[in-house]
Amino acid sequence: MSPQHPHIIGWSHLPFGKFDDLSLEAMVGRATSEALQHAGIEASEVDAVFIGFGGMGFVPENFISAYPLQAEPGLRWAPATRVENACATGTAALYQGMAAIESGRARTVLVVGAEKMTGVTGEAVTQALANASYVPEEASAGLTFPGIFARFAQAYFERYGDHSATLARIAAKNHANGARNPLAHLRRDFGFEFCNTVSDKNPMVAAPLRKTDCSLVSDGAAALVLRAADQAGSARQAVRFRATAQVNDYLPMSRRNVLEFEGPRRAWQQALQRAGAALSDLSLAEVHDCFTIAELLTYEAMGLAAPGQGARLLDDGTVMADGRLPINPSGGLKAKGHPIGATGVSMHVMACMQLTHTAGGIQVPGAELVGVFNMGGSAVVSCVSILEAAR
């Protein structure tokens, strides 16, 4: 292994939720300080900082790359850069941090992902997110992201039959998992019947997607400390990357067959091949369930099930918390929350906790190899990481 291969030696994760009294700056500062403390290093040892922040107008601030410096004066003069890549922003920041180490430009890197989304109206959030689509054909035609993923679901249903109950089972699974995660935005087990029934509390948002099929609008921050392998030996804990992969597809949905989910499929294939691993080697996976249909399509893109057969993984318990390959034991975006810039970093923190057996009530026993899939837009950006404990 190259001496420049990056290891994760520390992390932090604020609880996700709606925090009227917690500013974006305060969240970034707290995540920064807690990650450095967890890594057992001084701020002055950090060579570079990368911040994942969507900056979609949820807060007045836009230029936030210096926020960690305000929390930790020892970071002053370290180069700090903001990274954005739609809902894959957090992983994009992480991959930039890894690249800085792999190139030899840095030995120790701080990566922070953060977003504060709940200070504006729901309509403003919906419009801001819609602008991450191909605006000339999608947002300008009135399509929101629930509407975009409703098209995925409609196409799936047309080809494979009505799978509304399958989507409800995915929602119920992730809410049950999130109920055991103290960091989750929504810690409540709603059960299948509630998720499968349209009601005043679970309205249809964009047919066939109900409210329980949609991820949460959240505030939150998470952070990771990376260090080159040849300097990570003294760390109290270390997690290494067996492989990563990122692929980008066309932005317009009109240029893609949405049912193919080809970007996620290619990213999973590339990452597993580079890791020298098979799906059967994974202990669990955290995947991008921005909508329940996205998780269902991800099962099939991973190769866990043939096209149209993803429901069988719920039938036989494969993807359940105690199954052969638990999917989203954290509760996923569905229950843990989806603060855009923080999501990808959060997913990797969850992987680190599992691999160091510090995940508490959501721990998958004996976790050794974890897959993380973070997606941007309508399967436009697809990032997959395969991680394992370094010792």
Write the layout of secondary structure elements.
Blueprint: E1 6-13, H1 24-39, E2 48-52, H2 67-71, E3 80-83, H3 89-102, E4 108-116, H4 122-130, H5 145-160, H6 164-178, H7 191-196, E5 204-206, E6 209-210, E7 219-228, E8 239-248, H8 262-275, E9 284-287, H9 292-302, H10 312-315, H11 332-335, H12 340-355, E10 369-376, E11 381-389
Amino- and carboxy-terminal Cα gap: 14 Å
Identify the CATH homologous superfamily of the domain at 6-120 and 217-234. Answer: Thiolase/Chalcone synthase
CATH class membership of the domain at 6-120 and 217-234: Alpha Beta
CATH topology of the domain at 6-120 and 217-234: Peroxisomal Thiolase, Chain A, domain 1
Shape designation: globular
Residue-averaged pLDDT: 96
Main sheet: strand order: 3-2-4-7-1-8-11-10-9
3D structure, described in words:
This protein has a domain at 6-120 and 217-234: Peroxisomal Thiolase, Chain A, domain 1, CATH 3.40.47.10. By secondary structure, it is an alpha/beta fold. The chain has helices at residues 24-39, 67-71, 89-102, 122-130, 145-160, 164-178, 191-196, 262-275, 292-302, 312-315, 332-335, 340-355, and strands spanning 6-13, 48-52, 80-83, 108-116, 204-206, 209-210, 219-228, 239-248, 284-287, 369-376, 381-389. The protein is built from 12 helices and 11 strands. A hairpin with a 2-residue loop joins strand 5 (204-206) and strand 6. Strands 3-2-4-7-1-8-11-10-9 form a 9-stranded mixed sheet. Helices cover 33% and strands 18% of the residues. Helix 8 (262-275) packs across helix 9 (292-302). The model has no long low-confidence stretch (mean pLDDT 96).
